[in-house]
Amino acid sequence: MWVQTNTGQKLLPPIIRIERCRCVRCNGEPVFSCKQCKQEILLCMRCARRANHPHPLKSFRRNDEKILLLRRHLTLSYHEHIVSCQRSICMETCLESRYARHHFSVCADRPRQLRDIINHGGVVFNGIGYEGNSCFSCGLFITCMFLHAKRCQLSTCHVAWCEEIRDTFDMVSNDIYVVSDEMRNKCENVHKAEWKKVEDRLRGQLVEDILSIAL
């Protein structure tokens, strides 16, 4: 759907929402999960029997869902780090998540341009990724690009697709990320703990630099 903005007609922005955990094949209630796969593999009883999954499957319990939902929200809360952070010393999660940026630049299965993922006048996100994505890492990176574009004010931005997203979608009017206050607070607490570790490493690096100069 098109809306009129100060800069012309644009598409309504997508809504990014972390839904309850579902079977990756039939969208049913998950009973098993794989702890080895990088991509979240959740399966109901029937699909687990048919899947012939290469790794051992473990029971998926209610507490597992709470942890997984928090992990998904945490992943999206690092979106700026995933798409743009260049710090040599940063949160461990940031350093680990940057693989998605490199992967997106080389993946043969990724969409080549923004319009490749627009269907029926919009993009439908399903948690970490969009509807129809064939690559988990690329889906994550594209989700993070939209979250970045929502806040970006730069006239020229180095983040892939940022300017095109802002030119195509009305990213100003409404928030695009739906998250509860409870989950937001949990993510912020994790960030604070991680930044404390970063500050400790920076102080350690500063001491090493001073000692090297003194010597």
Automatic annotation (TrEMBL):
Record-linked InterPro entries: TAZ_dom_sf
Protein name: TAZ-type domain-containing protein
Species annotation: Caenorhabditis latens
Organism ancestry: Eukaryota, Metazoa, Ecdysozoa, Nematoda, Chromadorea
